[in-house]
Design goal:
Number of domains: 2
CATH class of the largest domain: Alpha Beta
Radius of gyration: 21 Å
Number of strands: 16
Distance between the termini: 47 Å
Shape: globular
Strand order of the largest sheet: 5-4-6-1-7-10-2-11
Order of helices and strands: EHEEHHHHEEHEHHHHEEEHEEEHHEEEEH
CATH superfamily of the largest domain: Alkaline Phosphatase, subunit A
Largest sheet: 8 strands, mixed
Structural class: alpha/beta
């Protein structure tokens, strides 16, 4: 349980804070109680939001775990860190500017617990002082196992050292090889049993029928068939997925209680997010990967115990990205952000400031293949405050979609046959040019 002492504030000048980064896997932005979900029970994460700041327009720049996690580590877009599959590790010069490597160099004790997800191996020793083995998706009770490892790390922290602990849950990711898909902990078995989960209106077949043929035949549809084919299966799958999220919340409470028990809570900043969003049957799909809102929106909460009370419990509407995690953690630790890093420090927004902010951002999903062997069609695009431009790059010629998010937030009316398409395509090309010219040794500037 999250104790009252954890929400205490500090006064006067602060020393460098400790850092706790909590990352879930496949949890989209609306799947928290504090985000207004009518069913999910997430009291510990909700209390972080009540005492901190929640970003309600937070996105991943690539909706697949390996690439998104590389972006989180480095503050870089996919086309710059170069991780587009599950086997490719970060290049040494890129790993050197990752947040754990820089924090360790700056004297932080760095720890990693859970799913690393980059390069096919565990967390690298040159970035983390302490890392634990991953219990794996097939293990029931995986979240609690990770929680025990996190507590073990915290109990090993000395009173005079700063730490950064990255706790990376595998939940609520499905076990794709298991018929049950979502292997929740037995303690959560009774949750939501007597409730009926509303089925999203975009689960109707007419929305699936609108999708390009290569998407209708893709892996997202194959996984839909394992989870959401009929009403009974849908209810059981979604409730099991919700139970995994509830299990995460229990562990979050236990870890935060450990901070209080160790006297660390008043100087520990907590960041909570997820690697990508998730389809729960919308458009007849499962999983993530594509540039639709369900797939790219993720939760983002920053809890800082030194935050004045007038800023607590607030939400910010600026478009923030997974590439902003690394700059934020570095800024909190008073470590200079590498000039080539593309993300931005969120703490000004947390403290109620109104800095100039991004008006659009570039999306890419390069994991896939060449027809006819495509399982996940590759795509790129632009997401601005108003417009979305989606370009399916494997199709020849490319297939495009355009949505006016102000008038059509559910992305139901494709405007790719209107003049605005050409302007958005130009913007996409500008971003591509800028990313191609990126250099790890040179300052980064968004295309203007």
């Amino acid at each position: 349980m999250l104790r009252r002492s954890f929400l205490g504030a500090m006064s006067g000048l602060r020393r460098r804070p400790n850092l706790l980064f909590l990352l879930t896997d496949d949890q989209r932005a609306d799947l928290l109680g504090c985000a207004g979900h009518p069913i999910l029970q997430t009291p510990n994460v909700d209390r972080l939001a009540a005492g901190g700041v929640r970003f309600r327009n937070h996105f991943c720049a690539t909706a697949i775990c390996c690439t998104s996690r590389a972006s989180i580590l480095t503050g870089l877009h996919e086309k710059c860190h170069g991780v587009s599959d599950f086997k490719t590790p970060l290049r040494p010069e890129i790993s050197a500017i990752s947040y754990p490597a820089l924090l360790r160099k700056a004297g932080y004790k760095t720890g990693f617990v859970g799913k690393y997800g980059v390069g096919g191996n565990g967390a690298p020793r040159d970035a983390f002082d302490v890392s634990f083995g991953d219990p794996g998706l097939e293990r029931v009770g995986q979240s609690r196992a990770l929680g025990l490892q996190a507590i073990q790390f915290l109990d090993g922290v000395k009173s005079n050292e700063n730490f950064c602990l990255s706790l990376s849950f595998r939940a609520p990711h499905a076990n794709d090889q298991d018929p049950k898909q979502y292997l929740y902990d037995p303690e959560e078995a009774g949750l939501y049993r007597d409730l009926k989960v509303p089925v999203p209106f975009k689960a109707e077949s007419k929305y699936f029928d609108r999708m390009p043929e290569f998407v209708r035949e893709s892996e997202s549809r194959a996984r839909w068939k394992k989870r959401f084919t009929n009403p009974e299966q849908y209810q059981e799958s979604v409730k099991s997925y919700f139970r995994l999220i509830a299990g995460i919340d229990v562990v979050v409470g236990e870890v935060l209680h450990t901070l209080s028990r160790r006297g660390l809570a008043d100087n520990t900043v907590v960041v909570f997010s997820s690697d990508n969003g998730y389809f729960l049957g919308e458009r007849g799909m499962a999983d993530k990967w594509y540039l639709y809102e369900e797939s790219i929106r993720t939760p983002m909460i920053v809890y800082d115990p030194s935050l004045p009370s007038r800023f607590r419990g607030k939400t910010r509407s600026e478009m923030t990205l997974n590439i902003d995690v690394a700059p934020t953690l570095l800024g909190l630790a008073q470590v200079v952000q590498p000039a080539a890093m593309q993300g931005r420090d969120l703490m000004g927004l947390v403290r109620g400031e109104k800095p100039a902010w991004r008006k659009d951002w570039f999306y890419s999903h390069l994991f896939g293949g060449v027809p006819p062997n495509v399982l996940i069609p590759r795509s790129e695009g632009i997401r601005s405050e108003r417009w979305k431009y989606l370009r399916w790059t494997d199709a020849k010629p490319a297939v495009e979609e355009v949505y006016d998010l102000r008038r059509d937030p559910e992305e139901l009316k494709d405007l790719s046959d209107t003049p605005v398409r050409a302007k958005l395509e130009t913007r996409w090309r500008e971003w591509n040019t800028a990313l191609k010219s990126w250099n790890v040794n040179q300052p980064w500037k968004d295309p203007v």
